[in-house]
Write a structure and sequence with these properties.
Layout (H helix, E strand, L loop, with lengths): L2 H12 L5 H35 L2 H37 L3 H28 L1 H6 L5 H14 L2 H17 L4 H24 L3 H24 L25 H23 L1 H9 L3 H17 L1 H19 L3 H28 L1 H5 L6 H33 L4 H24 L5 H24 L1 H6 L10
């Protein structure tokens, strides 16, 4: 750790946020993942901004609808990979490398099994999917084109997430960072050239995403097969895909599905709410649809921090539990939750102060700019709940405790946020219902998951998934 980093660690320790000795391994894991998360989320954000400049509000509204479906792909992959990181981290921490490698094999098969049907749906019925959300004719055209050309990237994205979570589970977040960041840069370059150089609009954005995602898959696959990257500083996976099998082990695949399904449900609950929210926003016109999506995209960029801290919590908690060190696992989880809250609060203040210039990167029309600036500020405030939710859920995930976080996600989004947004359609609250929904969809799950972590019940849950629990 550098001298400046050591000073930061000591300051955080004096403030009672996280112990300095735990801060170092946390940030070693987290910062590459934060860069990775920012790279992943920036691709769609950049596409939205470039299409907005080239096409206008109809283009951004169309992308808003299409990106809702793409978000489901990403969140499905994150949920599936949640089981991967739990089993890889606990078995790797318990020095059961062969079992961890087998978990990766089975995760790859599940990822392919999930992605092919989704790709087929995007190709077969793009117009009904976009039209279902109340899109105007122009927005429908742009959104449908994007879904068709981004369809092949579904397979790439799910495989990329499995590989990323495997590297995180063994404590290597640098390799995936290099691959993902390189893919993000390539995506922006390709999309920019196709959108502005060839006038391809939404199609250019989607093709750029597909090509860049395929590039990342090839790069990560090289290391996941145990091959060396030479002098690039990237490492082959210590739990590589076993090309000769075995590919099926009943106890392990049962555990993978048992952990992943609630996590998939939690992630999909996070993402699926965008569809009724977009439908409600569409009732106020394309300007509000665009503004809502701008606010959500900025919040997603802020939430890049969770890509690091949440996964650091999962990996460190999982590894210490695998080694039988429950007290240390709890100390890491609590410290990371506090650290996440502090970071998100600081970022929120900065974004709120510069909300209007940030909104101006996406829209130029005065009415759209004013509306987007409000959504940017509201999205930033609601990100604090994301920070607490992500860190707490990450610690629970490291223990294999995914069922109650799934329930928390359902309650926050569908018992609180969605009714709040719907109130805007039938009361003078109007667009304010969408503001309230953005806040509630993160604050409620964040509070519940923090309480779940504080109960300590997750330590008992983890004992079912540790290497010593395997009857074979």
């Amino acid at each position: 750790m550098t001298e400046r980093g050591a000073a930061v660690a000591r300051t955080l320790e004096r403030c009672g946020i996280i112990d300095a000795e735990r801060f170092r391994p946390t940030m070693e894991l987290a910062w590459p993942r934060i860069v990775t998360g920012f790279a992943i989320m920036s691709k769609q954000t950049a596409d939205l901004a470039m299409v907005g400049i080239a096409v206008g509000t109809a283009g951004t509204a169309g992308l808003a609808f299409a990106l809702g479906y793409w978000q489901i792909v990403t969140l499905l992959g994150l949920g599936l990979a949640g089981g991967t990181v739990t089993l890889v981290s606990q078995n790797y921490g318990g020095e059961e490398t062969a079992r961890a490698s087998l978990a990766v094999n089975q995760s790859v098969l599940l990822a392919i099994g999930f992605s092919l049907p989704i790709m087929s749906v995007f190709l077969a019925v793009p117009d009904p999917l976009i039209g279902l959300l109340g899109a105007s004719p122009d927005a429908l055209r742009h959104g449908s084109v994007y879904l068709v050309y981004v369809a092949p990237a579904v397979v790439f994205e799910l495989l990329n997430l499995i590989a990323s979570r495997t590297y995180t589970g063994v404590g290597d977040t640098f390799t995936e960072m290099v691959a993902r960041a390189g893919g993000a840069v390539l995506n922006i370059v390709l999309s920019g050239a196709l959108i502005f150089g060839f006038g391809m609009g939404a199609a250019g954005a989607a093709i750029g995403t597909t090509l860049a995602s395929g590039f990342v898959t090839l790069v990560l696959a090289w290391g996941m097969l145990g091959r060396s990257y030479g002098r690039l500083g990237m490492e082959p996976s210590p739990v590589p895909i076993a090309r000769g099998g075995p590919w099926f082990e009943p106890t392990l695949i049962r555990q993978l599905i048992e952990i992943s399904l609630p996590e998939i449900g939690r992630r999909l609950a996070q993402g699926a709410i965008v569809f009724p929210l977009l439908w409600i926003a569409a009732s106020f016109g394309p300007v509000v649809v665009t503004a809502l999506e701008v606010g959500r995209r900025v919040r997603a960029l802020i939430n890049s921090v969770n890509w690091g801290l949440s996964l650091a919590a999962s990996s460190l908690v999982g590894q210490h539990l695998g080694a039988g060190e429950e007290a240390e696992a709890g100390a890491y989880g609590a410290g990371i939750i506090r650290l996440s809250t502090v970071i998100y609060t600081g970022l929120t203040v900065l974004v709120v102060l510069f909300a209007r210039p940030i909104a101006g990167l996406f829209v130029t029309d005065p009415e759209a700019l004013a509306q987007a600036a409000v959504f940017v500020a509201v999205g930033a405030v609601s990100s604090i709940g994301y920070g607490i939710d992500g860190a707490a859920a990450g610690a629970l995930l490291g223990a294999g405790d995914t069922r109650w976080p799934f329930v928390a996600s359902l309650l926050g989004r569908y018992a609180f946020a969605l009714p709040a947004a719907a109130l805007g359609l039938v009361t003078p609250l109007g667009i304010g219902g969408l503001y309230l929904a953005l806040f509630l969809e993160t604050a409620v799950p964040g509070g519940i998951n923090y309480w779940l972590f504080r109960t300590g019940r997750w330590k008992a849950v983890s004992r079912r998934y540790r290497p010593s629990s395997d009857p074979g």
